[in-house]
Amino acid sequence: MRQESHGPIGVFDSGVGGLTVLKALMERLPHESTLYLGDTARVPYGTKSGEVVTRYALKNASFLLERGIKLLVVACNTASAVALPALSAALRVPVVGVIAPGARAALRRTRGGGVGVIGTPGTIRSGAYQRELEVAAGSGGVRVKTRACPLFVPLAEEGWLAGEVPRLVAREYLEDFSRTGVDTLVLGCTHYPLLKEIIAEVVGPRVSLVDSAEATAEAVEELLSARGVLAPEGREPTHAWFVTDVPERFMEVGARFLGRPIPTAEQVDLSF
Amino acid sequence: MRQESHGPIGVFDSGVGGLTVLKALMERLPHESTLYLGDTARVPYGTKSGEVVTRYALKNASFLLERGIKLLVVACNTASAVALPALSAALRVPVVGVIAPGARAALRRTRGGGVGVIGTPGTIRSGAYQRELEVAAGSGGVRVKTRACPLFVPLAEEGWLAGEVPRLVAREYLEDFSRTGVDTLVLGCTHYPLLKEIIAEVVGPRVSLVDSAEATAEAVEELLSARGVLAPEGREPTHAWFVTDVPERFMEVGARFLGRPIPTAEQVDLSF
Prior knowledge:
Two copies of one chain form a homodimer. With 272 residues, chain A is of the alpha/beta class.
């Protein structure tokens, strides 16, 4: 057990989006070391098939596993939606996705039982949020309305976060959410928190937004604590970042997502 | 020679965009057989580094080469911009990119010598159009103004081709082109012809748009003819499509780009 509590937490995403989850983890669990992998050579996952995303997810996971992680966080909604069963079956460490924690957070938040979910085409097509919400709500019941918003990822990556273009795009995708009894909206893609202000403006003040990063960090803490492998307090944690394309843009754009500078990121080749 | 004239023309792109080039080839050279590869598992190339795009381009090329192509068309501006030297060095068949034909077409078209180029971040960052235009113009001289338009690819892929959103995005990117003495604008990405109407509206009637698909087909014809390996007239050509992700979306979106249905596309794995 002692050795296990010293391993880092592994986190992967298709690119920079998962850094919002890493940020929540670093804030909630400041003694834990982390390894982050951004698969920037194959980004985005959200427009690709479940089959291809699962293949990439397994490669990412085995890269992190070789580096001694004690737990894997799939910090990408699309990969969580389609690859979690394959990852859990293949790995000898616990695997935490972002969808179950996000769904549970939405059910705690909703007053009227109307929950909206927005995400990439891959996430929405998978039906993973719908299933997770219905299972977790049980006999209490939940009405779920989902919508794929494919242009939000490029807008967030390009830093077009305010002004007429993102406002019009958000209106096109979200206008009818405020008319359908949805009082809680899950930001089912790690890029979307960057567009939070515009999204909130379009859906109106009666709709509460759920960002699954916080909820995921909470789930990780519970799991490590239950297994007795939380890092000892007072330990100086280490953090490392890996990417599959050249690191410059990841470090630059990623700092916006992480809320602090990324000191260095090492390029690795996972194509073989 | 006889055998060579029976091989198909190989064409690759990161996804569906290169189908605009294939369309021009099929119209200009109706007796030629073709093999098209869309690397949909790793699309897009335009936001990735030259290093990674070159690695992917070499894999795509060797897949097509194994199937007996007599000539390779790199129907992707980003790959043409960064990987053409590596491809030409590695392959035993002639390689034609879209940039040199597009640049030469622009020089024939311009009246005042002011040429604009729009493309992906990868294409623009490479400086390939600028170099090609300056070399081809020689002492005649040319003034080049370039601009990366990263949101045009997701807009075209999502089919948001008309209306307020693409108009606003185009204005943001292109407004100053009409004020800088540019009279000819190269659509330096195979996705952009789908947004031609909006682009034309924003840059105004005095700016002529150049789509390199036609010019590339012409270059291919010249090259095959000079080598004496044009397909014999009256031959019934065959056409085949390959993709690296599941074929459904490629066939659906691709028909818009090709201007006719894609009867079938075979999924192949190039990740090893």
